[in-house]
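Problem 3 from the worked examples.
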Amino acid sequence: MKLYDFGFAPNARRVRVYLAEKAITVPIETVDLAAMQHKSEGYTAVNPMQRVPALELDDGTVIAESMAICRYFEVLNPEPALFGTGAAEVAEVEMWNRFAEFYLFHPVAMAFRHLHPGMAAMEVPQVAAWGEVNKGRAMEFLPVLDRKLATAPFVGGARYSVADITTLIAIDFMKPARLAVPPACGNVQRWHALVSGRPSARM
C-alpha cells in the first residue's frame, strides 16, 4: 500500500490530517505537481484524473479522491469515528462536510487556481472573472459557518470530524488565495484556533 501525495496540495492534506487523527501510517510517494509529474504517463496510469491524492492498495486497486480514501480507512479503523456514529450524527457530519466542500473549499480553490500567477501553467485557461466570482462565494459562506459554530463546538456538531478537517484545510487555503476570515466571524476564528492546535493540523 502507498499514498501518492504532494505536500502543498490541499486535498492531499485532508488525507494526511485524517490519517494523523487515526494514528495510521501509510508509505508515501511524492508526485511533484510543480514539476507536472501528475501529467506523466506513469501517474496517469495510476489515476487517469491526474490528481492527488491516490491510494494504491497491495492488490493494485487504486482509490482516488480524498474522502473516498478516508472512508476506506474509516471502515478498517472505525475509532475514533470521524464520520460520526448513529444516523443523525452521520447525516449532520456528511451535510456539513459537503457544505464546506461546495461553498468554501471549492470556491477558495477556484479563486486560487484562476487568480494566482503561479497557477497559470496548471489552470489553462485562467479565467480571472471566475476567480473573482468564487472569492465572493467563499466569503458568503463564512457567516453561515459562523452561525453554526455559535451553537456547536465543531463544524459537524459535538465532536471533531471530517467536516472540521475539510473546513480547516479550506480556511488555511484562503491565505494563498489572498482571502481572510473577516473579524465579524469570531466563532470561526475561535474554532480555527482550537482545531489548529491539534497535532494533526501540522500535517
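Problem 4, a separate protein:
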Amino acid sequence: MPHTNTVFRDILKLVPWAAFDKLVKNHGSDELVRSFTTRRQLLALLYGQLSGASSLRDIEALTSHQGRLYHAGGLVAARSTFADANRSRNPEVFSGLFMQMLAMTTRGLRRKLGDAVRLIDSTSLHLAGAGANWARFSADVCGAKAHVIYDPDLGCPIYHMITEANVNDITAAKAMPIEAGATYVFDLGYYDYGWWAALDDAGCRIVTRFKKNTPLHSAKSMPVEPETGILSDRIGLLPGRQAKSRRNPMQGAVREIVVTLETGGTLRILSNDLDAPAKEIADLYKRRWQIELFFRVMKQTLKITHFIGRSENAVRIQIAVALIAFLLLRMLNKMSQEKQTLLETTRLVRTNLMHRKDFTRLKQLQRPPKLDSRQIMLNWGST
C-alpha cells in the first residue's frame, strides 16, 4: 500500500522553508535555542490556526499526534517554553515569511498602471489578561488594531500593521507605503486632506466618502446616465482652509457622486478622478466591503479573536501566522480538484488535518461511494 502523508505535512510543503531559514538567520531568532526552534514554533502555530485551537493548552494536545508530528519536523513543547518563544522572538521573521509567500502567489501577475485597487481598513482586537498592558485603552479595556491593505483582485492582504487600539486609522495609514498609480478605497477613518494630497501627488486615484458637513465649492454639474442609481455628479473644490485656518493642501478639483442606497438613503462619494464614468467610481466604493468580509474570515474562521499570548510580540506573531495560514488555505483551495469555497476548504482541512489523506481530494473522500441500482438492491436484501 503506497505511503500517504498527513494533510498537515503536505500543507507544510507549500511553505518556502529556505526563505524562512534565511529570515531566522538574519534576525538571529535561533541563537541560544536548544530544541524548540523558530521552525518548530511556526509548525505549532500553524497547527493551532488550521485546527481552530484557541489556547496553548489546545495546541499542547498535539502530543496525541507526536509520531506524525515528528515526521513533519515538529515538536510539542511545554506551555511555558512555547509562551516564552511567543513573547521573546522577533515577529519580523513571521511577517517576513508572509511577504515572501505573498510574492510567490502573485509571481507572474502583470497589471497595467492604474489597474491595482487597494482597500484600506482596520479591525479591532480585544485583549484581556496578564501581558496586555502594552495595549491599554482605558482603565478597564485593553485592545489592539490590525491595519490592512487588501487587494480585492488577488483576494488577500498585501500589507498589515499592528498598533494599540487608541492609534487613529489615519496615523497608521500615513506610515503605509504608497503605490504610485493605484486606486485607494477607504472610509471616513482616513479623512485627512494632507494624506489625500500625498496620494494625489503620487498619481493615485482616491475613492472615499464626504463627511456630511464638508461642502463642495464652485461646483459644476455633470450629466448623469439614467437607471444607474446615480442621483448627481458634480466637480468642484474642497474648502480652502482646514481647522485653525491652515491651508488645505488638497487644492485640486474633486468629484462628488451622490448615489442611492438600498435602504433609501443617499451616499456622497468623493474622488479625484474627474474622467471615469460615475458608475465606475460608485462600484469601486462598493468593493470596500470585500475587506470587511476578509476580517470576518480572519475572526470567525481563523479565530484571531482568541490569542494564545497577550504580549505585543505574541499578538504580532499570531496575526502574521494567521495571514500565512490564510494564504495556505487559498493555495489549497486553488489546488483542489473540485470547486469549493474557502470556508469549505477550511472545514475539510480542519477535520482531516492529521489524517493520512490526499489534501487535493478531501471533498471527494468525504462522500460515500456511489452505488448502482443492483448494488443498492443487494445491500437492501442483505439487511
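Solution to problem 4. Residues 7-98+309-366 form one domain. Residues 197 and 250 are 5 Å apart (CA to CA).
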